[in-house]
Amino acid sequence: MTVELYYFQPLGTNSGRVYLTLLEKGVPFIERELQGRQFEHLQPAYLKINPRGQVPALVHDGRVFIEGMTINEYIDEAFAGPPLRPVDPVERWRMRVWCRYAENDLGRCLMMINWNRIVPAFIGARDMQDVDGIIASVPDPDRRRSWRSALEQKTPPAVIEESHRRTRAGALKVEKALRERPWLAGSTYSLADIDFMNFCGMLLRHWMPDLVNDKATPAFMDWARRMDERPAVQEMSRRRTGMPSPPKGAA
Amino acid sequence: MQLYHWEPNGACGRVMIVLAEKGLDFQSHYLDVLAFEQHTPAFLALNESGEVPVLVDAGTAMNESSYICEYLEEAYPDVALMPRDPRERWEARVWQKYVDDYVAASTCELAWQALEAHTFRSRDRAALDASIARIAMKERRDAWTAAVNGYGEEQLRRARERLSETIIRMEADLDRSGWLAGSAYSLADVALFAYVSYLPRVAPDLVNDKTVPAVMAWLRRVKERPGVKAALAMSRRPEPFATAAPGPEQVRWG
A9, A145, A217, B79 — which has fewest CB within 10 A? Predict the structure, then answer.
């Protein structure tokens, strides 16, 4: 049995969600880190694995699995190790709703707030001809447009303001949920917590200390510390490169 | 079990088909979403976003059609609508996620523009604006405002681009077993059927017997299933795919 994971550093978002799931399950895997800034995910070698040119991709006994949320459900079903989905069908429904919210709604907002800064930093000091070539090689048309508009600093202010508004609402939403239940899906730790931490939790703590802190969101902060204490989360932190370490006092 | 729903198309169609396929009894609450019945305080108490469908079961009001279907599969497994092999289950889930992320929003845009945008143009605009202003969630107010104003050419072009890609993928996958995931009918087929059924009507140049014969044959085969027939028969209109409502928002890319 071989398991390989293609992913980006710093570990977080879509790469981090699957990486952490493998660690939590205790599945040994071969690390295939791709250099995002060298656009290795758009090179022919990787496009053979995932023609959509996106990470992560999991290769299990020669078969390729893409789409982080569905990879994680596959890992939980195909491998032994502690279950990462609740047994109760209602809790499982709630888990999936949170996974989707983390990835597609709040996670997007946190990314978009900084998209106009992230993309130029990612592109670095290349001349425009190279950049045009890179963008042309992105397989997905929506992602091509998004890169282009960020490079030209054209993401509309209204879109960024809407992302801020949703982020403020999101901090309240997660706080309310965690006051009702210890984990996002309900009584047990699940893929929902893994996803929320990777898409939203880390960024909220790093970037939005005015929104999430012990006074405003004590239940969220308690959850975040319980996450920090998990051996798999600590292991992922040790293996994360290229990201500033957590602020002092964040334990 | 109670289901709050509109016509058996799109998101509501997915859940109504799964309930019928599994032979599950439920109390039906039909909300006319084109008359904004999903934005009454009573319904907003069940789902703050004012979107149908909502399933009430085990004391919980559940939204998000994709996950309602997975819930029904897990809570009522006797009639199985997911493959057993984890790899095939992954195939079914990837298709469902693709529907949730892209197909649903793109289909609803094309369908709304072709089927209902003109009927809303002839409505009293002040009354419409007042109905929209009462929608609690900004996301849904924005979605309705955009729909009532009519979608722009660029937006519709992108929706068609997505759906062209979708049906090409479907055509390739259907070639393997006649179904989208594994070797049997599954939640993936239900999810796509509930949206792709619109396309021969609203994008006939893209979806027809010449361009995608396997997709067309599959549409006819799914439509003949007793469970699907039973769900479609709950329509209060001559044809559930002759009307449409604003769908979920597109994935936000920035």
Answer: B79
